[in-house]
Design a protein that fits this description.
This protein has 106 residues and is α+β, with helices and mostly antiparallel strands. The protein contains 3 helices and 4 strands, in the order ββαααββ.
Length: 106
């Protein structure tokens, strides 16, 4: 099962393979990591409304946000590596909202 870590506007930051966002109750992610994830999604909101030109001018900010997102992906994959219902192993992908591309597959 594939999970996408993505700071989409007004989302939880986690999406299943069908593109539906996931709630904490559907995971085994700790409260602290979940809060960090929500804070990251909120911090990324400023980028989601930027034009392509503005994104190019704010590469440093986007890289910092993506660095945090990748750290979160690593933490999340440690805390939640199997689907709660099926026990299927989870695969994680990171999508950079700032650069509009996948950065990592895990």
């Amino acid at each position: 099962m594939e999970i996408k870590v993505w700071a989409d506007v007004h989302s939880t930051g986690l999406f299943n393979y069908e593109g539906e966002y996931l709630l904490q109750e559907e995971t085994t992610i700790s409260d602290k990591t979940w809060k960090d994830l929500q804070d990251w999604v909120e911090a990324y909101d400023i980028v989601t409304t930027m034009s392509q030109h503005e994104r190019k001018q704010n590469k440093k900010l986007i890289k910092l946000l993506d660095k945090e997102g990748l750290r979160l992906l690593t933490q999340i994959s440690k805390e939640w590596n199997k689907d709660k219902k099926s026990q299927e192993k989870l695969l994680f992908r990171y999508y950079s909202e700032g650069f509009l591309e996948y950065i990592i597959f895990n």
